[in-house]
Specification:
By secondary structure, the chain is α+β, with helices and mostly antiparallel strands. The chain is built from 3 helices and 6 strands. Strands 1-2-4-5-6-3 form a 6-stranded antiparallel β-sheet. A hairpin with a 4-residue loop joins strand 1 and strand 2. It is globular and about 45 Å long. The relative contact order is 0.21.
Length: 155
């Protein structure tokens, strides 16, 4: 059994999560990392998606003072990886690692915050695929990412 599967990014009303940490637990887990440095936060956990935000400021802008594509990729990979960890069969004994990410940048953003929503495309035992859509504060679609992660046993 490969676990829950999606159909056009929609699951049944059943939650996909096996572990649901609080925003405070997420902040503790990500302390002293790039995630904390860039100001990435988890803002909402729905039955089948994880939502987070990141400021657009000197930490995340390129020299043209617009959001750096690499920062968008960091937000996308953070949301997808953390979501995978939350729905593994044994979260305490699993390690999630990104093995591929692709990001299409659709619109530039120069200030404010961006918000990302990670939704599953496929949830298998060893591989998860996530679609992460990023929007600006006005709700405009700024990028779409596809992330593949591998589930490994913790050392």
């Amino acid at each position: 059994d490969e676990g829950p599967k999606t159909n056009d990014h929609k699951l049944t009303s059943m939650s996909i999560w096996t572990y649901k940490p609080s925003p405070e637990q997420f902040a503790t887990f990500t302390g002293n990392t790039m995630i904390e440095h860039l100001g990435i936060e988890i803002t909402d956990v729905n039955d089948d998606s994880l939502v987070g935000s990141m400021p657009v400021d000197h930490r995340t802008q390129q020299p043209y003072r617009i959001l750096h594509g690499g920062a968008s990729a960091v937000l996308a990979e953070t949301l997808g990886s953390f979501a995978s960890q939350m729905c593994t069969e044994d979260p305490g004994n699993s390690k999630v690692v990104g093995i591929e990410i692709s990001v299409n940048h659709l619109r530039q953003v120069s200030e404010g915050k961006v918000f990302g929503t990670a939704t599953p495309v496929k949830l298998g035992r060893r591989l998860h695929i996530w679609q992460i859509d990023l929007h600006d504060e006005e709700g405009r679609h700024i990028s779409r990412a596809r992330l593949t992660v591998m589930i490994l046993a913790s050392d």
